[in-house]
Amino acid sequence: MLQVTREWRNAYPGACVGLMTVDGVVNPAFDERLEARKVELAEMLRAQYRTREELLSCGAVAAYREYYKRFGKTYPVLLQMESVALKGKPFPRTAALVEAMFMAEVKNGLLTAGHDRDIVEAPLILDVAADGEGYIGIGGREQVTKADDMLMRDRAGIFSCVLCGPDSRTRITAATTRALFVVYAPPGVDLMLVERHLDDIFANVSLLAPAAKPGYRGIIS
């Protein structure tokens, strides 16, 4: 399923990447069952995290903050966690399959990219970026990589990286029936948390599509 370059292994000892494909998914604009789960999750997060210091003490958040700090960036999932848990804002509304992934991101603090598995062209390659590589991101915006950022390529080029996010070519759409979820975990993130995170994504997807079936699943370190 995945090839790993020597450059990635040398650059990120102790890091891992989780991969999961799910067949038979659906992606409606709205789903009542998922909406109810979002309300429950928001209440749980607000009970769990009452201050920013409590959020920052989450082990996964600390690892990602360190990663992003290397590049002069702020970890975006932390901002999303603050928005829901500390500021009382609802989860943002988007297509339901993307929401299912995003809910798990905010619950666990793990950065995740979602793709249409039928668009991704094997082989998949886990690599590090050269400075200035380009691809078209979500919304049609051109993205330019920073040297040594973690990324994934397929036969057609880069389809996601940590700092710039997923590409437009392989994005999840209303027509997606097979999904690929990629979890980027820098050094310091426990592998068992990545496993639980994949479980949470699949549980959320199953609310939308009870007949969905797991395909490939693995954690590469």
Give me the secondary-structure topology:
Layout: E1 2-4, H1 6-11, E2 16-23, H2 32-48, H3 52-56, H4 59-70, H5 76-85, H6 96-108, E3 111-116, E4 124-128, E5 134-136, E6 142-144, E7 150-154, E8 157-161, E9 165-166, E10 178-185, H7 191-208, E11 213-220
Helix pairs in contact: 2-6, 6-7
Offer a few descriptive terms.
221 residues, Phenylalanyl-tRNA Synthetase, Chain B, domain 3, single chain, alpha+beta, 11 strands, 7 helices, 5-stranded mixed sheet
Q: Tell me about the biggest sheet?
A: 5 strands, mixed
Secondary structure: number of strands: 11
Measured by DSSP, the beta-strand proportion falls in: 25-35%
What is the helical fraction, as a range of percent?
Answer: 25-40%
CATH superfamily: Phenylalanyl-trna Synthetase, Chain B, domain 3
Separate helix tally: 7
Report the average pLDDT across residues.
Answer: 97
**Regions with little confidence, pLDDT below 50 for 5+ residues:** none
Name the CATH class: Alpha Beta
| Spatial gap, N to C terminus | 14 Å
CATH architecture: 3-Layer(bba) Sandwich
| Number of self-contained structural domains | 1
